[in-house]
Amino acid sequence: MKRGIKVFALLVGIVLLMAVVTGCGSGKNNQQSEEGQVQSGGSEGSITAVGSSALQPLVEEAAKQFMTDNPKTQIVVQGGGSGTGLSQVSSGASDIGNSDVFAEEKLKAEEASQLVDHKVCVVGMAAVVNPDVRVDNVTQQQLIDIFTGKITNWKELGGADVKIQLVNRPSSSGTRATFKAIALKGAEEAKGIEQDSSGTVRKIISETPGAIGYLALSYLDGSVTPLKLDGIEPTKENIINGKYPVWAYEHMYTKGDATGLAKEFLDYMLSDDVQKSLVVDLGYIPSTEMQIERDVQGNVTPK
Amino acid sequence: MKKRLFYDKAGHGVTMLCAAFVIILTISIIYYIGSKGLSTFFSNEVSLWEFLFSDQWRPDRSPGEGGPQVGSLAFIIGSISVTLLSVAISAPLGVIVAVFIVEIAPGWGQRLLQPAVELLAGIPSVVYGYIGLSLLVPVIRSLFGGGGFSMMAGFLVLSIMILPTIISVSTDTLRAQPVEWKHASYALGATRWQTIRMAIIPAARSGLITAVVLGMARAFGEALAVQMVIGNTREIPTSILSPIMTLTSAITMDMGATVQGSIWNSALWSMGLLLLLMSLFFIMIVRCVVRRGAV
Amino acid sequence: MDAKLKNNLATITFWVGAGLVMLILGTLLGYIFYHGLKSIDWQFITAPPETVRAGGGIGPQIFNSFYILFLTMMISIPIGLLAGIYLAEYAGRSQLAEGVRIAIETLTSLPSIVVGLFGLLVFVNATGWGYSIMSGALALTVFNLPFLVRVSEESIRGVSRELVEGSLALGATHWETIWRIIVPCAFPSLITGIIITSGRVFGEAAALLYTAGMSSPPLDFSNWNIFSPTSPLNPFRPAETLAVHIWKVNSEGLIPDLRRVADGSAAILVLVVLSFNFGARWLGRLIQKRLTAV
Lengths: 303, 295, 294
What we know:
The structure holds three protein chains of three kinds. Chain A folds into two domains: about 45-120 and about 250-300, D-Maltodextrin-Binding Protein, domain 2 (3-Layer(aba) Sandwich), CATH 3.40.190.10; about 125-240, Periplasmic binding protein-like II (D-Maltodextrin-Binding Protein, domain 2), CATH 3.40.190. In chain A, about 40% of the residues lie in helices and about 25% in strands. Chain A has helices at about 1-40, 55-70, 80-90, 105, 110, 140-145, 175-185, 200-205, 235-240, 260-270, 270-280, and strands at about 45-50, 75-80, 95-100, 115-130, 135-140, 165-170, 195, 210-215, 225, 230, 245-255, 285, 290-295, 300. In chain A, the strands form three sheets. In chain A, strands 1, 2, 3, 4, 6, 7, 8, 9, 11 and 12 form a ten-stranded mixed sheet that branches. In chain A, a hairpin with a 5-residue loop joins strand 13 (about 290-295) and strand 14. Chain B folds into two domains: about 1-45; about 70-295, MetI-like (MetI-like fold). By secondary structure, chain B is an all-alpha fold. Chain C starts with a helix and ends with a helix. By secondary structure, chain C is an all-alpha fold. The chains are: A alpha/beta, B mainly alpha, C mainly alpha. Chain B: This is Phosphate transport system permease protein. Chain B: One of its GO terms (molecular function) is phosphate transmembrane transporter activity. Chain B: Keywords: Cell membrane, Membrane, Phosphate transport, Transmembrane, Transmembrane helix, Transport. Chain B: Its main location: membrane.
């Protein structure tokens, strides 16, 4: 009988202790992050980078390496989506906001104007099809007709006699925003299956006869056929020299100019250590190598 | 002595506080979700009519093109249809199994089925979703064609998920019925089936309805398992093989990608509010049924 | 004759229905373990996950799941138990008790994604903790509380009244009776109930997506300083649990061995929940024996 009470008393004790500890913990935590922001120049302190799940792997890996080189620093990387990243950096809740799209496209103009953009890499995208459709090249107009539902069978493009199955991305995805704006010139797509995940999109396209969708180049593995656009192959080289147009920047935003640890980390992101190894390993294109630039309105200029 | 009496009073007070805390928590959930969910209609000035009855979902359109539009009809229909279909399968099956456990099962059947139902209830919803994605979707694709990701995959997964709820609540109800009716029925020479149909089920009717409504509530609010298998296409479904979108999967997929305060984000909160109101509605049904049954 | 035939048909239907449920369960468990156990080894259970390469593990995720479960229980058991005691012992048919019952029913049927949204508003944004273990644990407390209150109330109502009346007759106050007689007697069924709800908490994902977050920062398991961001024990770091991980690798996975990781994670998740379920019964019976033998 007695034992039960003792156990319970112990539990209650632990709870109280936890409450005290977490109370102190949160106080201490705030202090730490403030310290991190006050710190400048010295490689210690802690920052958070929140946002795009597409960019998360790159930033996570880079943060791991950075922390190995600077053991006193702490970089917390979180996903949660581009919208979350932009909201958090603009409200000051995080030091860096990762986004697949320009801040101007999501935030109000006055909020976006306070943010400073760091374009850390470029992601290329290709329309991909199930290998059995026997089509590997389309003109941009044909691509628009396919996605708007005007062309419904691959034989209209000289391929196999199978119905076209559209596989879309959710309207909130950065990949879709880019593909729609650039490859489809802003045309509204017909409805198709919508999948959040690039891996699932690839799987569906490789298993479904007549399927077409679009993927970041890093997901191409031979199980699906990437389509040439007006005869131009979606390769890293063609994106760098500006021949192939379907690509987007990956952005890391800070509120005002980056200072202290955030600046050091962003400089590291743009240094050769990251650009020449990690960025390439993950299937992205180094933004430092790009020979052209694009602004938020989509105007392309030579760099 | 004084100290003991003080403890007695204090104990009463503390337990009461904890009980009151549960109420406060519930009210604050309703308040917070409500205030966020209503901002679509007050600060973003979307009409309630458009939100509920328009299927034009184009939250990313610029104002120049006549956007953003946040008609959620396709999601609402998706949620309702997938829920009703799953209940259509689970309600009869659940009641059958519950009657089996209480009236028919020999000892070993009961010893086997009761834990089985608990295990079904214990399997986490992501695991249901994952099995649906890796086992059920390919099966549907090869049997019926199409992409496999479909309303059908959704309601099959859901029907298995809500089965334990329906079975366990029904079992409790059936066990609580007085035995006299049953004995009287047998004494009149009725077969077991007649007894079940004429005496046992009608007597337990309100409890069985409660079981089904609770199952329905669970199906309506399930998020991840459904999101993984329904294909998530934002349009009104035309057949059970078409991919659909539900309120829960819209929230899951877009919440992180939208910016606080934008119309798009507010619309997602409104969907959350709609889910909350639906669960309150289900609770009201249950309470009405029970009260009517008691009279 | 007709009635007999119908009766036999009905009996067959009932047997088929029951058989179907067993078949479904068998298929599910068979599928999970057949695929999952192949991919589980020591390295998989302990190694950190990989973001792009094959061969990652789920060590931090397993730890996060247990840690969040622990914190959730620390917060929700006291509140749940005390509220349960109130309902069973003090409330009677008062207005407050009726209110609590309505609240519990509402919370029980609340979709977990809505609990997650509430957590995002209150624990993540309003407190400024961001995605963190604490936010996740508090969201799960909301999710778990109604079940715990119900479990406590039922366990306490199950205690024999003779004991209670005996205690009161000997001059113990109501409060003393509750702590010395009722709670100890209800202990076995309390423990069983608590462990079974633990299983539900362990497998919950929707409420955690936007509270505990979907990322697992690198952890240093030799670092026990609770305030350090790399410490596994720091309650203010983001933490992806096993259940969330299954969802995430399926929806955003870059890794080539996605199937292996998802299969293995699902098997471990189900194994833990099953062992909670069986363990609860076994422990309940054991405590029952110990207590009644004294």
